[in-house]
Amino acid sequence: MSGSGAPTASLPEGDPTGLQSFAVLLRRMNSEFNRIAQEFAQEQGLHLTDMQALIAILDADSDPDAAGEPMTPGRLRGQLNLTSGAVTACLDRLERAGHIRRVRDAGDRRVVHLHYAEAARGLARDYFRPLARSTDAARGRFSPEELEVVVRFLVEMNAELALLRRHSG
Predict the structure, then answer these.
(1) DSSP code for 65
(2) 25-53 pLDDT, tens digit each
(3) Closest CA to 157 of 25, 34, 60
(4) Distance, CA of 49 to CA of 89 (rounded, Å)
(5) Burial class of 160 by CB neighbour count within 10 A (0 to 12, 13 to 18, 19+)
(6) To 5 degrees, how large is the angle CA 87–CA 164–CA 128?
(7) Distance CA 142, CA 152 (A)
(8) I need a surface site. Which of 55, 61, 82, 166 has the fewest CB within 10 A?
(9) What pTM, to 2 d.p., does this model score?
């Protein structure tokens, strides 16, 4: 349903729903997301790994499937496939820059939970607002039924990528 009249990006040649087309489109989208994230990281004086950590912490804070389980340094290490020392250095940079907070668990003081700092959340929200508007504009060109299919595909794709990560590590 392309009712808004806004331009639609061209599809790759050949079968528009074939594996090759999906690969090209997913790479294009991933490249653009990475470019935007890298620009934010540079503006904030962060490494790309810092951005990956921030995204993981943000997602853990807002993921309804996480059952209220905040990110921990150990989980972050596994998710980003980093050494303990690299995770510590990354978290130190993020905390110094005011992007995250480390909070000790009340029940077990050895456990550290990682949270996206509220001030940094506002900064990121302001920076990524144009991306949110673009995403909303693209969503507006689809019916609710079409969006359900897109969401189902993305959920399945993320599940497959998580399986791939577990089996390759």
Answers:
(1) G
(2) 999 999 999 999 999 999 988 998 999 99
(3) 25
(4) 11
(5) exposed
(6) 55
(7) 14
(8) 166
(9) 0.77
